[in-house]
Amino acid sequence: MQRRQLLVGMAGVACAGPLLAQQWPAKPVRVITPYPPGGATDITARIYAQHLTQLMGQPFVIENRAGAGGEIGATAVANSPGDGYSLLFGAIGSLAIHAVIPTQKPPYELMTALTGVSMGSSVPLAIAVRGDLGANSINELIKLSKTGGKGLTFGSAGNGSTQHMTGEYFQQTASTKMTHVPYKGSGPAVADLLGGQIDLVFETLPALASQVSGGKLRILAVTSDKRSDILPNVPTLKEAGFPDFEVTTYYGLLAPKSTPPAIVAQLSKTMQDISKMPEVRQALQKQGADAFASTPETTTKLIQSEVSKWGQVQKLAQVQ
């Protein structure tokens, strides 16, 4: 009798996940993007939310909760019930960097408070120099950084930003040293590059591509694994002699850790289906991004990889 009851109980547990997924969502789902409207994270989130709404039968409502470099919104989701009705669409690199910088560490543990659902898009970074700088290749840039007297300056979107940490990573890889100039966002950094106040930036390609034709900046390389469709003639850093260098800005969907696996799996599968839609791929390409969805396991591994990578960079650079 006890054995029969145990088997019945186990069968009930096994069925609970699929049943829960079938019943979910029964009401609107809020998707928190931890940045203001109009940025790459917000745009990607809204593209996916539109199709999630259509395919899942309930509204997926974008809620912008900006502040603290994205951590106000991320903390809100980390502290939410794992019922599938509170999700985070965030910049994976930024979340990983905050997890390893002591002064920026959020009030939750990234790998234990949140679980990966799916990536949504990927955006390459690029190394851009001011138009009159005497460097037309990465090797020339490195040589100039070592022989240029006062040294070179690179701007970023802020201390501890992905752009800043990519600059630190590049210096460690190239065995060179430049002076970091932090700004309050990518816009001011690119404006000062165009104005000649700084020598170079490590910046997302969409923020730079529209400025190339003016001649006030020059893109020397992209940091992604493959060349960009936007600038097919620009080499990757791997092609420029750094075979292990790869930095891509990923935007993806996460959920509270206690969210049932059945819901996570259903969400991930739908994200993957959406990423294959031609209209979604085209909409993201207009923003300089590539549609990129993934399984929960792959998403979690990518987040772990980002934490490991930036942890090593932080350890050597002592970014605070």
Automatic annotation (TrEMBL):
SUPFAM superfamilies given in the database record: Periplasmic binding protein-like II
Signal peptide (from-to): 1-21
One matching Pfam family: TctC
Gene3D superfamilies: Bordetella uptake gene, domain 1, Periplasmic binding protein-like II
PROSITE patterns per the UniProt record, alphabetical: PROKAR_LIPOPROTEIN
Keyword Transferase assigned: no
Keyword field: Signal
InterPro entries, A to Z: BUG (IPR005064), Bug_dom1 (IPR042100)
Family: Belongs to the UPF0065 (bug) family.
Protein name: MFS transporter
Organism encoding this protein: Comamonas thiooxydans
